[in-house]
Amino acid sequence: MQFWIIQGLNSLSLGGLLFLLSSGFSLIFGLMRLANLTHGAFFMLGTYFGATALRAFDGLNIWVTALGAGIAVAAIGGLFERLVLTRLKTNPLGQVLVTLGMSFIISDACLMLWGGDSIPVPTPQNLQSPTRVFGFVFPTYRLVLVGCAIGAAIALYFLLERTRLGAMIRAGVDDRQMARAVGIPVSNLFTVVFCLGAGIAGAGGVLGGPILSAYPGLDADMLPLALIVVILGGIGSLLGAFIGSFIIGLIYTFGTALFPELAYIILFLPMIFVIAFRPQGLFGRVGA
Amino acid sequence: MKWIAATPLVALLLLLPFFAGDFYVNLASQILIAAIFALSLNLLVGYGGMTSLGHASYLGVGAYISALLTSRYGFGHGPAAIISITGTIAMAAFFGVIALRATGLGFLMITLALSQVLWGLAYRMSNVTNGDNGIAGLTRPMPFGISLDSAASFYRFALLVAAVAFLMMAIFVSSSFGSSLKGVRDQPRRMAALGFNPWMIRWITFIYAGFWGGVSGLLYVYYNKYIHPTSLSITSSAEALLGVIAGGSGTLGGPVVGAALVLLLKNYASAYLERWNMLLGLVFLFIVLMMPTGIVPGLARLMTRLRRGLR
Amino acid sequence: MTPHALEIINLHKAFGGLSVTQNVNLAIRPGERRLIIGPNGAGKTTLFNQISGDMRPNSGQISLFGTDVTQFAPYKRAHFGLSRTYQIITLFTGDTLEHNVTLGLLGLRSSRWQMWRPLSFYGDLTAEAHRTLDAVGLLHLAAHPVSDIAYGEKRRVELAMALAQKPRVLLLDEPLAGLSNTERSQVKSLIASIPRETTVIMIEHDMDTALDLAETVTLLNYGRVIVDGDRDSVIADERTREVYLGV
């Protein structure tokens, strides 16, 4: 029983992290029609920033670190978008290739700066003691992560549904040409959304540190998960990213726990199922 | 005109082992293998209009099947090669059905995800694939009893396979099927209205590209006598894609030039720099921003301009 | 009784709450020259898209010469003798006129699956392509890339490609759009000379020219068939005036 509960919680916390990772990816794909292959690297960058900061300054607040790293990664993303991506407006394939190139640059830079060993990230002290619920013991931090994801989801929901910026983003996702025609500054919107997506990924990276550790190859581990979540949940749909993240978190955690060697194939199956029977994903508005 | 230019190149290729040392002959073998791999990818990218980021799957699977069958199950190289190619074709057929549910970016994402799944499997299933250690101590085949262990003899073997590959792919792209493939790339709706079956044309091409990818995988594992999950990685697919795009995806010569360039860069760079991946990324950015159609078309344009200027 | 060339029964298509095709019934006899008219947004091209298979209806049936083709993919309908042109030019702009028409001819031949003989090997295809280009007066441009020729000439190539396969049913989507007066009369005489073996269904806005070519007319509005019958009676019908003049 303990096993199922622990794995269940692990699924939820992984799902939460995946949401932080893939919500940005889904937004960027939905608005800019860009499969941002740098996204895993943005996440990893956040994890490394977090690892360094949290290890160097004892007692540093993890939320502040996440915010800081999020801003830093958003800035890097913004520079990349302005300097490189905007020049390739007419070349969507080229855009994807440069995001791939950028992911290589970032991952090698991380290797250069932090070396090849895995860097464990300390769990924040005030969240280290386990929580007792109904006689079961839960690692508090994992519970907090789930809360984070829900919080981020609510914040993003409010942003998209209740603000002018959100309305502009949604208009752009639905019909880019029309949005431009009604005067929405689509190109600036692109930069904002790209920064937002990168920033959320970076912040998510910090928060994921205590569970995942910072190691070279983290980006390559996370990117396909983001892809699978977005394919499953549907492109451009926040709800799809949310539900998809938790479904994949569940499948991946239980899959790895029960059939470690076949975890990847088990991940594979819902993706095939979705592509075969419902290519727009569970909640997608934009076809792949 | 093209044939006159080709003759010294062909002579150079054939006579290479006689005047170049082992290091360069081996480098040439690696270039040939990369060229076949890039050409197979170009069938999809350049002629089919389907950009795949998972082509390393076919190289890797082809290599791993041969490696496992020969080292662990005592198969001879001949049967192992046949099973490997058959397996690669079957996998391409299966992956093709899944990936072709989408086009454009969706197709790209699905090929990427599928190839990452394979890579993950190669790493995790250590009792089968030996995981991160890779499979070492492999041997080269001995076709008709001829040993391929020396640099020169392997080079001649690779050259023969590459020549056959190049010829067969050249015939394929200029055939009526090839014309219909290019048509589907350019105007899929029009082609369907004319009676062509776009899905079938794409699927057959996907399988054919997978076949040659598998062939390059066999040559790869014979050359290195070693196989590791990295050969299935995104980097491996990306290097091939870079070669195709850098060289020029609309032609047959482009991917060969591009693959050679990427390989030379990799070898040169690894002697001086440790950060090959970063360099690869920067080159990607440079080529896409500065030379989007590739080197070969760029050179061809230059030649035409020079010729006009000389008149 | 010979089956209708094209028969549409209770066709319905909706996007969410918006019905673009509502209970459309059409029966077109072999050899007929039918004109489909209607204001912008009436659903004419959507109807064509469902006939050619580019769009699937929500309900209803489409039959070609008695065979139910509703579930057929577009390429399959081509093999059933259906051919169409598009509002926008969909030619292979980088290729020569000859290559375009040859490719068009290849679509129904089994040699399209050939993977080792070049297209130039099929001399009979090239000859047929030349004949087709000659029939539309463009043989002298056969070796030119499509990107080099005038818009009116491109329209004639489109028409040539559609006719080359000797279709049983030909859908022409605004074949006269964007043409100069000379070009219009050229294309018009081309359409007029199409043999009776081909049933022609045309969407057109240029009434004057199109009505000359039509024998029967169908008026669509808001996705519905408003009037349907021979040319003169449809023109005289009150409802036609209503739709176009709002009277």
For the report, how would you describe the main beta sheet of chain C? 6 strands, mixed
Mean pLDDT over the full residue set of chain C: 89
Compute the separation of the termini of chain C in Å.
41 Å
Shape annotation of chain C: globular
Q: Any idea of the CATH topology of the domain at 6-92 and 166-245 in chain C?
A: Rossmann fold
Radius of gyration of chain C: 18 Å
User: Can you write the helix and strand succession of chain C as a string?
Assistant: EEEHEEHEHHHEHEHEEHH
Count of distinct strands of chain B: 0
Question: What class, by secondary structure content of chain C?
Answer: alpha/beta
Beta-strand residue percentage of chain B: under 5%
* Low-pLDDT residue spans of chain C: none
Q: Which structural class matches the secondary elements of chain B?
A: mainly alpha
Cα-to-Cα separation, first versus last residue of chain B: 17 Å
Helix fraction of chain B, binned, reads over 70%
Indicate the CATH architecture of the domain at 6-92 and 166-245 in chain C.
Answer: 3-Layer(aba) Sandwich
Say what oligomer this is.
Answer: heterotrimer
The helix/strand series of chain B, from N terminus to C terminus, equals: HHHHHHHHHHHHHH
Helix content of chain C: 25-40%
- Which class of the domain at 6-92 and 166-245 in chain C in CATH terms? Alpha Beta
Quick recap of the structure?
By secondary structure, chain A is mainly alpha-helical.
Topology:
The complex is a heterotrimer of chains A (288), B (311) and C (247).
Chain A: H1 2-32, H2 39-56, H3 62-83, H4 92-114, E1 131-133, E2 136-138, H5 140-162, H6 164-174, H7 176-181, H8 186-212, H9 218-233, H10 238-258, H11 263-277
Helix pairs in contact in A: 1-5, 1-6, 1-8, 1-9, 1-10, 2-3, 2-4, 2-8, 2-9, 3-8, 5-6, 9-10, 9-11, 10-11
Chain B: H1 2-19, H2 22-47, H3 56-71, H4 77-99, H5 104-124, H6 126-129, H7 151-174, H8 176-186, H9 188-194, H10 198-224, H11 234-247, H12 253-272, H13 276-290, H14 295-310
Chain C: E1 6-15, E2 18-28, E3 33-37, H1 44-52, E4 59-64, E5 67-68, H2 74-79, E6 82-84, H3 97-106, H4 123-135, H5 151-164, E7 169-173, H6 181-192, E8 199-203, H7 207-213, E9 216-221, E10 224-230, H8 231-236, H9 238-245
Parallel strand pairs in C: 3-8, 3-9, 6-7, 7-8
Antiparallel strand pairs in C: 1-2, 1-4, 4-5, 9-10
